Amino acid sequence: MPVTTVTKDPNALTMTIVAEFPVPVRRLWDAYADPRQLEKFWGPVGYPATFTRHDMFPGGQSHYYMTGPNGEQYPGYWEFLDVDPGRTIEVLDGFRKEDGSRNTELPTMRAVFTFEQTDSGSRLTSTSYFNSAEELEELLKMGMDEGTLSAMSQMDDVLADLQSFAAGQGVQTQLIGENQARISRVIRGSKEQVWHAHHEPELLSRWQLGPDGWTMPVCEVGTTVGDSYRYEWEQDGGGERFGFTGEVLEISPPHRAVTTEAMIGQEGTPVTNELTLTEVDGGTLLTLLSTYLNAELREMILGTGMADGMEASYARLEREVLQTQAG
């Protein structure tokens, strides 16, 4: 158990938990920055968390839910107030309703996570600040302290796994809920480089080609809210041709972009794609959360080999764009 002290101060309206780990600060920080890792320990034992959004930059948000033994869900959110990479994370921590909106009937609190190097590894200090003695008492009655300690008891196993989340693993696909899928990959490049490569037509048309043998004759990029985009691909020699179009719904360079996506010439509800870039050890963690109309459409699209095509594109991005820029 990594926790060394738990201090509740009813006068200061705080609860502070200190834990130490035999890993570098960078490794501990990445466990909080990477939603794939965070969801393995954020929920108490028996109540695993699923993060459907994790934008770790000031002004960004995280959306998650914990699932109980009988399938019941407990949604929550973070609003990032401050992020000092490798040192501190400050969030507003609260509950959400089933429809995703914030539940203002339940307490919120401010939480600060501080990361420090020690002689034997790293130290995490988590301090929760409550709005009133009544809210502090209410959250403790809800089992906040026991739940937090139960969740943190899982951290050692996550931190010891140096392989599953490292650069070089290729594209990973995770099904979320009934109609979402999350694509994840660490790209060997800075966040700014990866963002630029996604939003500069000359670069994008060099790497986002899927398997060998295709070109991208149409590459019209959207860079502000309300912009439309259009991408078309063609087999070498003038063979098969297809494309996608959509609209930019949100954009926060170089962190996050939300777009719709529809195949040109086909009717139906478009897919919504949420792209998030996060700096981690070895490069930039790219996550793409896609929300489909239903599970059937999700399975059909994933069944086309989409993940394999994306891996070919990301490998090309590293090889032909980012390494060239570095040189």
What would a concise description of this structure say?
With 327 residues, this protein is α+β, with helices and mostly antiparallel strands. It is 25% helix and 41% strand. The protein has two domains: 3-160, 2-Layer Sandwich (Alpha-D-Glucose-1,6-Bisphosphate, Chain A, domain 4), CATH 3.30.530; 172-326, 2-Layer Sandwich (Alpha-D-Glucose-1,6-Bisphosphate, Chain A, domain 4), CATH 3.30.530.20.
Structure keywords:
START-like_dom_sf; 327 residues; ASHA1/2-like_C; Alpha-D-Glucose-1,6-Bisphosphate, Chain A, domain 4; alpha+beta; 41% strand; eight-stranded antiparallel β-sheet; 9 helices
Provide a descriptive summary of the structure in words.
This protein is 25% helix and 41% strand. With 327 residues, it is α+β, with helices and mostly antiparallel strands. It folds into 2 domains: 3-160, 2-Layer Sandwich (Alpha-D-Glucose-1,6-Bisphosphate, Chain A, domain 4); 172-326, START domain (Alpha-D-Glucose-1,6-Bisphosphate, Chain A, domain 4, 2-Layer Sandwich), CATH 3.30.530.20. The chain has an 8-stranded antiparallel beta sheet. It is globular and about 75 Å long. The mean pLDDT is 93.
